[in-house]
Amino acid sequence: MEIDDAGWLVGARHLPSPNHNHRPAGVAVDTLVVHGITVPPGRFGHGGVDALFTNTLDPAAHPVYAQIAELRVSAHALIERTGALTQYVSFDDRAWHAGVSHFDGRDRVNDFGIGIELEGTDACPYAPAQYRRLAAVTAALLRHYAGMNRSRIVGHSDIAPGRKTDPGPAFDWAVFNRLLDHVCT
After folding, report:
1. Alpha-carbon distance 140 to 136, whole Å?
2. Distance CA 171, CA 152 (A)
3. Which residues have CB under 8 Å from 92's CB, separation 6+?
């Protein structure tokens, strides 16, 4: 995979989200945050994440949608159970994925982090296609952003402990790291 000069993955589906802004001046991208998400909770493949990140959720379509339709959130990208990849925000811009967060002595991880969502839950094993796609995207990010390295790949739960639990115990870091080793060699 490649990242173009505007911070977009070549070959990914692009569905721009209005929920982003510029990163603070002089702040380098150096952290990858892995998330888990389903919209509505526990249901896969229904376009709910697209609708959430593009502010088009129909509050009448599901009880949970009525509670979250007014949220203004995004991530840089989503990897579905099938491995399908959608990018919502340029990696060079600030997506709104981490919320109140802290990593490596710094607050506001959105300022310097990239958020990749995996369609899944804390308790449901992630699909092999998701791990393969995440490894490929991560390898591209490591090549593109000089300040990013493997020690700066974290889960949402690592940067917002007590507030967030994703990607959860169902995410197999060992599998992901083995695949990343393979892609990066």
Report:
1. 6
2. 17
3. 6, 7, 23, 29
Among 145, 151, 21, 17, residue whose Cα is nearest residue 77? 17
Find the distance separating the first CA and the last CA of the chain, reported in whole Å: 14
Q: Which residues have C-beta within 8 Å of that of residue 182, sequence separation ≥ 6?
A: 135
Residues 87, 43, 86: CA angle, nearest 5 degrees? 10
Q: Which of 2, 70, 80, 117 is catalytic?
A: 117
The string of pLDDT tens digits covering residues 90-149 is 999 999 999 999 999 999 999 999 999 999 999 999 999 999 999 999 999 999 999 999
Model pTM score: 0.97
What is the rounded distance in angstroms from the CA atom of residue 66 to the CA atom of residue 123?
Answer: 25
Residue 185: strand, helix, or coil: coil
Q: Is the peptide bond before 24 cis (omega within 30 degrees of 0)?
A: no
Q: Is residue 117 annotated as part of the catalytic site, yes or no?
A: yes
**Exposed, middle or buried, 40 (CB in 10 Å: 0-12/13-18/19+)?**
middle
